[in-house]
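Run log // design_07
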């Protein structure tokens, strides 16, 4: 198995993708808006991915956070609010905010389960800081670490109730970044002591099954390599200090924060200790290069992948979604934050 997650070019598998995926046997796949047309089409697409290797349990992922980061959109699917809506409610009624976040995540998860998606890259556990780039912005669950952790736990729980694996991101924290890592490499100069604020939510949720790194240079930890490609950050901060022993994915390797070819970026990330390289844009030369450069998935990573896929039970029925959305909206109304 190749320790990579690959994207798809369109709403159906092409013959070249089918042949490549059959040979490369990636750890999983990621879906974007270009892959989504309808419920029926999306279910057929995910079924075709499972059929390639005959694996019923397969890591099929999507960035479905709510708010601006949404791949499955209305009118086919409901609208989901950004993380800031639950942060605002928490300021008024903490218990209600936690219950609203849990209900919202379960409803969102039911959408995913219905079409055969097994993992979403949420919740965002980045602690929002003043004066930083708005690439995280209202995606964040707040600026207070314990609040972010409490709401993040509720999101993970709600997703699990729907049979969906959550992903905590962007480890060890994107909240201080003064630049958008899609466009350039952010450099964070905060001290090791100051960065304890950033890692606190990740430490609180270190038992999460899946996490994603951030492409950020933390000068207190490594002045040369961004977190995704830093052996020190991955092994000493993420694995040891935070205590995360789940499946560690890179953020998208096509992002301009990283240098070198995409296969070289993947190779450096895996060498640093990431489990799986995430390559989103379905460019066949990049995908074949990654498959050629990366070693076969080690047994440790196989176990982490299997543990992640086994971490949730069967999904609930989509019929219960209306009740969950009504509950969420009634609670969000307390702070005027309805979706």
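design_07 sequence
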């Amino acid at each position: 198995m190749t320790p990579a997650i690959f994207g798809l070019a369109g709403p159906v598998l092409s013959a070249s993708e089918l042949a490549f995926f059959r040979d490369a046997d990636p750890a999983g796949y990621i879906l974007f808006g270009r892959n989504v047309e309808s419920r029926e089409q999306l279910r057929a697409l995910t079924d075709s991915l499972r059929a390639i290797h005959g694996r019923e349990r397969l890591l099929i992922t999507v960035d479905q956070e709510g708010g601006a980061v949404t791949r499955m959109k209305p009118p086919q699917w409901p609208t989901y609010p950004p993380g800031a809506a639950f942060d605002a409610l928490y300021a008024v009624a903490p218990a209600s905010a936690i219950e609203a976040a849990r209900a919202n995540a379960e409803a969102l998860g039911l959408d995913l389960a219905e079409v055969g998606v097994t993992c979403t890259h949420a919740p965002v556990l980045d602690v929002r800081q003043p004066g930083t780039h708005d690439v995280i912005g209202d995606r964040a669950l707040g600026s207070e670490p314990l609040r972010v952790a409490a709401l993040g736990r509720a999101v993970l729980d709600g997703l699990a109730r729907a049979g969906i694996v959550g992903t905590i991101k962007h480890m060890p924290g994107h909240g201080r970044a003064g630049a958008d890592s899609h466009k350039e490499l952010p450099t964070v100069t905060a001290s090791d002591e100051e960065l304890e604020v950033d890692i606190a939510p990740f430490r609180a949720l270190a038992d999460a099954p899946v996490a994603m790194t951030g492409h950020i240079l933390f000068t207190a930890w490594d002045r040369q390599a961004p977190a995704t490609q830093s052996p020190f950050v991955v092994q000493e901060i993420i694995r040891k200090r935070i205590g995360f022993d789940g499946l560690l994915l890179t953020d998208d390797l096509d992002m301009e924060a990283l240098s070198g070819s995409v296969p070289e970026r993947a190779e450096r990330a895996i060498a640093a200790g990431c489990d799986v390289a995430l390559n989103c844009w379905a460019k066949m030369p990049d995908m074949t290069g990654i498959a050629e450069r990366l070693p076969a998935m080690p047994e440790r990573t196989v176990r982490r992948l299997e543990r992640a896929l086994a971490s949730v039970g069967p999904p609930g029925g989509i019929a219960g979604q209306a009740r969950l959305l009504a509950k969420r909206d009634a609670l969000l109304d307390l702070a005027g934050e309805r979706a």
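The chain has eleven helices and ten strands.
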